[in-house]
Amino acid sequence: MTGITLAVPSKGRLEELTREWFAANGLTITRPGGARSYLGAIEGLPEVTVRFFPASEIARELIRGTIDFGVTGRDLIHETSESGPASVSIAKPLGFGQADVVVAVPDAWIDVTHMHDLADVASDFRSRHGRWLRIATKYITITRQHFAKAGIAEYRTVESLGATEAAPASGVADIVVDITTTGSTLAANGLRVLEDGVMLQSEACLIVSRTAKLSPKRRSQLDAVLARLGTTAGF
Amino acid sequence: MTGAALRRANLESLVEAQGATRATPPLLLSADPYFDLAGEEFGRRLLLTSDASGREYCLRPDFTLPIVEAYIADGVGEPAAFSYMGPIFRQRDTGAAEFDQAGIELLAQPDGDVALDQVLTFARAACSIFGIAPDIRLGGVGLFEALLVQADMPDAWRPRIRNRFGHTEALDRLLTRLEAAPDAARQQQPSRKALVEDVTEQMVAAGLSLSEGRTPDEIADRYLEQQALDAAHVPPATLKLLRDYLAISGPVLQALTQVEALAARHKLMLGAPIRAIRRHLNGLGECRVSFDASFSPRLDYYTGIVFEMTGPKGEVLASGGQYDRLLERLGATAPIAASGCSVWVDRLEAEVAP
Fold first, then answer.
1. Is residue B161 less than 8 Å (CB to CB) from chain A?
2. In this structure, are residues B145 and B276 in contact, taking their beta carbons and an 8 Å threshold?
3. Hey, what's the torsion of the CAs at B207, B213, B216, B218, to 10 degrees?
4. CB B304 within 8 A of CB B276
């Protein structure tokens, strides 16, 4: 294989902002086939192939090493695999796409303000209600890691791929782990973020795969592009 | 026979020689009981699959649960002994997801001490087949529970502390929180009735069921209890006792003497659980035995004594102990004595690999 592969979010605001950021740094990403094409280029850099992917697939492929560098959220790197953060290097936070992965409980749970309250509630939930405390989330890996650190083992996750904030009201789960920028969606659904409930602060980042196999030539091509973007691979 | 094959055969004979029923649970098991028993922490290690109806299955991640479930289904009560050896499947950071475990389960035995001795003897014999005299680390779940019951503190704190036993950081955080200076005087508390009404209103407004999950009564009660707890602090002397106790770790005789001294100083009756540990020491012969007061598996069905055996490479080769609350958790109507252990066959084999 010759040349290097850059993965860019394939649609929406994230795609726009990513292309604007590259443009601001003097590199123009082109997408000749328009929004339905998944292949692009950078003007003046023929050695770089641009691929347009959904952000979660970019995280997965960076971790696997099938693409060399790309733009995706820090949350997706942590969520895709426990070994995710070790498999990549964050070359540069890009200053957009900021959001926090948080633990939120119903407002009515006036006795639960911190993770240690949740630990108490979880520990005897089963004996009171005959089932485990249920947490709706799409962030199963992050939830498991964070709850293990907080010493909470007595819960079950319920995978939720959309409208997680509605899970307590619909009876699917008791609490949620969700991503939020302002907290307003959570608040509108009667949910409150715990005072120490921010598990991860995420934003869009330029990320380099540590697992991609790079020949010295391709490595120098990568380093040259990163240098033009004002950063290095970091390893 | 090569050395490796001979050791395998010897281990196989050891498993067969336990006077126990050889258990061979299916490889494909329903995943739910594992999540129910051990929670998400263990759940993330499972290799999962599902059928067309969406029912979740896992590849057998251990032998204990299917053995004990089958025992309960047969009608509990009679003493029973099971031994096993075969592949289990867990996702691990290093090493293959499929590996062999061997072990024994002794259920409803008339004498729990004798049963634990047999378990320890089995684990040591398994190590010795591979030429290893393991280091043995003992933990006292029964000892800690006895100390906790007698220590001077508001009752509501006991389960909170017990729940964190075995998780060093979480327990440390709780003790640190308790050691922090008392808050300023609390303002007047709302009445329970007003709280329940307020919580009910909030739940209804948010569309939450008042009966499916936490109820307004439960929330109000815990809120008031929490307020009361913030006021009712654990005495500093008790916190010091817990810190001193949890820090005890070292050669077993020395460590137990320290526990005895601590008990004498705080006028605690810990004789029975300490003697229970001492009784097993003679049988452990030449092995280096240590006692670690803070050591416990993070599963609340363990009781009595727990242990871990490690080899020269520092890997845990065998672990087990007493878990009298396990059968109850799985549906038995009363606690039933249980003890057992599992040995990691792949790690034992790695110890002798050239």
1. no
2. no
3. -160
4. yes
pLDDT block averages, 10 residues each, chain A of length 235: 89 91 93 84 93 93 95 95 93 94 95 92 87 93 91 89 90 94 89 94 96 93 94 89
Structure tokens at A216: 């010295």
d(CA B234, CA B157): 8
Alpha-carbon separation of residue B106 from B68, B86, B134 (angstroms): 10, 18, 22
The model's pTM:
0.79
What domains sit in chain A, N to C, each tagged with a CATH number? Answer: 4-98+203-228 (3.40.190.10), 99-202 (3.40.190.10)
Between CA B134 and CA A56 the distance in angstroms is 46
Q: Which residues of A touch B (CB under 8 A)?
A: 106-111, 116-117, 119-121, 123-125, 128-129, 132, 141, 143-144, 147-151, 153-157, 168-169, 171, 174, 189-191
The torsion defined by the Cα of B70, B75, B77 and B78, in degrees rounded to 10, comes to -70
CATH architecture of B1-132+340-354: 2-Layer Sandwich (3.30)
> The dihedral of CA B297, A152, A111, B234: what is its sign?
positive
Tokens of residue A85, six digits? 């953060």
Q: Which long-range contacts (CB under 8 A, 24 or more apart) does B214-220 make?
A: B214/A109, B214/A121, B214/A125, B214/A128, B214/A129, B214/A174, B216/A108, B218/A128, B219/A108, B219/A109, B219/A110, B219/A111, B220/A111, B220/B192, B220/B195, B220/B196
Question: Kindly report the CA angle at B334 between B331 and B336, in degrees rounded to 5?
Answer: 95
Query: What ipTM did this prediction achieve?
Result: 0.76
- Cβ–Cβ below 8 Å for A144 and B41: yes
Interface test with B, best of A110, A127, A132 (most B CBs within 10 A): A110
The DSSP secondary-structure symbol of A34 reads G
Q: Are A135 and A157 in contact (CB under 8 A)?
A: yes
Searching chain A, which residue's CA lies closest to the CA of residue B160?
A120
